[in-house]
Design goal:
Chain lengths: 271, 304
């Protein structure tokens, strides 16, 4: 009898199935149609890699993709470095002057509308007279994504057993060495997951990049966005499929990393 | 001095670099938005009259303060375009949050009732689309919703409609896009509260003679309200400032505040008004943010 109250009803099963179908069907359809030979996006003309070839012959699109990958790699790396430092300061630094402002600044970008972040950074770059392009977009993405890295690393760091560090110090390590040789290896999987999250967020952003980039240096999302505004093009289906495949690989690596990170049986952060 | 204390000292130094970064690239830019929202539009490039130039010394700063004007904000409250986009943002965010709640709750509830070992799998399945490019997910819907797209084909084949329905550039398309994009944000906090719930409460309700339906409305739903609040705010806050979804899926008739800001900035090149709109949008977000913060604190407090 006790079991019955918590069992799955047909209603539960239906809503789960419909919900997952709603989440996945559009993406599956998009992927299938990227292999469509027909120029008309809606008419099925047989399987083909035509639109993938089209992409690899599209100079402007390739340049944009290359720009995006570089921005994502650079900004994710700086963001991981800064985000990890911020997490260490927040979890291990205890009270220090300016801490409320510090944590406020780190959480605010998580909820800030992108139009505001983009606008404010552009105004700064204009005031500094900085040439807009690769570096301005990278700085903008670093600022946004380091907050996500901080959250991921912080939650891992907070769940660590501090007695390990204390033991290392009792055995004669100075605090910095104890951190580098004991704590850091334990949080590496969270740091890796943070990097990948930062990388995919940067690869996805269209709004902030539109504000902070200059003429002639569009990122891939900016190009996709301007094409999509003009209507559906089969080539975009092919590019989208490649982006999805790429991100899928990143997710698999990230989830393996977070499995490693939670080897003690506790569940990892959902990101 | 305990080991803890010794450790705190060097850990604090780790704050220096990220601190400086955030002051320079987050706090300072806000100062610029505020400043430019209070300055006059100019036709020059960049299109605003700079308020002050620090190289000219204190006198210039004082003179500049005398020039500050609230004209842009006056324009915001007097022009119908801004008021209506402001109201539309609120309306769209409230409506979408309600739809998300109605769709997301049964899914989260189903997840929480899955056998324990299947729950992480279901959670992963909900999170994965969140990782997939946001722009691409919207594009996927444009594929489906276009004039001769899949949705119209299915509706025609089922004889539910006799002529293709116009979906793109309508509010329904925009709501579909918003619900699709934000569904994980609604499901995850709901699932988190529902999964934590003590099953013995339901057994007690059933022992006391309530039907499963009564038990749901009298026990489960009231206890899940913190999750409902968290999910609703997590969706409401970003939807208010949404730009890409309404721009690609909704018609050009009425705009949300994010679109107005974009239009003023990129098309009309009116930077001061765009900045004033940004400040206005921010003000709109402060109450829900404070509410969310309070809710989180209370939940954490309750968890111990």
């Amino acid at each position: 009898m006790a079991r019955k109250v918590n069992s799955l009803s047909p209603f539960n099963v239906t809503s789960l199935a419909l919900g997952l179908a709603f989440l996945y069907l559009p993406i599956i359809i998009l992927v299938i149609y990227s292999f469509n030979d027909s120029r008309l996006v809606t008419v099925w003309g047989g399987w083909s890699l035509r639109w993938y070839r089209e992409f690899f012959n599209d100079r402007a699109m390739l340049d944009a993709a290359w720009m995006s990958l570089r921005v994502a790699a650079v900004s994710a790396t700086i963001a991981t470095l800064l985000g990890t430092m911020a997490a260490v300061a927040l979890v291990r630094g205890e009270r220090f002057r300016g801490r409320p402002l510090f944590s406020g600044m780190l959480y605010a970008p998580l909820v800030m509308p992108e139009v505001i972040s983009g606008l404010s950074l552009l105004l700064l770059f204009v005031a500094l007279n900085a040439e807009r392009g690769f570096w301005t977009v990278s700085i903008a993405h670093t600022t946004l994504t380091m907050c996500f890295v901080t959250v991921v690393v912080q939650s891992r760091l907070a769940s660590l057993d501090r007695s390990l560090e204390e033991a290392a110090m009792d055995l004669g390590c100075d605090p910095v060495r104890a951190f580098l040789s004991v704590t850091l290896p334990l949080i590496v999987p969270a740091i890796a997951a943070g990097w990948m999250l930062a990388f995919t967020l940067s690869l996805d952003d269209v709004v902030i990049a539109s504000f902070t980039t200059g003429p002639g240096s569009a990122t891939l999302p900016i190009r996709i966005y301007s094409e999509v505004r003009l209507g559906v093009k089969p080539e975009i289906n092919a590019i989208s499929t490649m982006v999805i495949a790429f991100i899928a690989v990143v997710i698999v690596i990230a989830s393996l990393a977070s499995k490693l990170s939670s080897s003690q049986g506790e569940s990892a952060a959902p990101l | 001095m305990s080991a803890r204390r010794i450790f705190a000292q060097p850990a604090r130094y780790a704050a220096i670099a990220p601190y400086l970064w955030m002051v320079l690239f987050f706090l300072l830019p806000f100062g610029f938005v505020l400043k430019i929202s209070l300055s006059q539009t100019a036709i020059a490039q960049p299109p605003y009259v700079p308020l002050f130039d620090l190289t000219e010394g204190w006198e210039a700063v004082k003179a500049a303060f005398a020039q500050l004007s609230l004209d842009n904000f006056r324009l915001l409250v007097s022009d119908n375009l801004y008021i209506s986009s402001y109201l539309r943002s609120l309306f769209v965010a409230v409506t979408s949050t309600l739809i998300l709640l109605v769709i997301g709750y049964p899914i989260a509830y189903g997840m929480a009732r899955l056998p324990r070992r299947w729950q992480p799998v279901a959670m992963m399945l909900v999170i994965v689309p969140f990782w997939t490019s946001f722009l691409i997910r919207i594009y996927a819907w444009i594929n489906i919703l276009q004039h001769d797209g899949l949705l119209n084909k299915i509706l025609l084949a089922l004889h539910l409609v006799s002529t293709p329905v116009v979906w793109l550039s309508t509010d329904s398309a925009m709501y579909i896009g918003i619900v699709y994009s934000y569904l994980p944000f609604m499901i995850l906090p709901l699932y988190a509260t529902l999964a934590r719930m003590d099953a013995s409460l339901l057994e007690a309700a059933s022992d006391l003679g309530s039907s499963p339906r009564q038990a749901f409305w009298l026990v489960t739903f009231p206890l899940s309200l913190p999750g409902v609040g968290a999910g609703a705010l997590l969706c409401f806050i970003p939807i208010v400032g949404e730009f890409v979804i309404p721009d690609l899926l909704a018609g050009s008739g009425s705009m949300m505040i994010g679109q107005t800001l974009w239009l003023e900035f990129f098309t009309n090149k009116d930077w001061p008004v765009a900045s004033a709109a940004a400040i206005a949008l921010l003000v709109l977000l402060v109450p829900p943010l404070l509410l969310y913060d309070r809710l989180q604190r209370r939940t954490l407090g309750a968890a111990g």
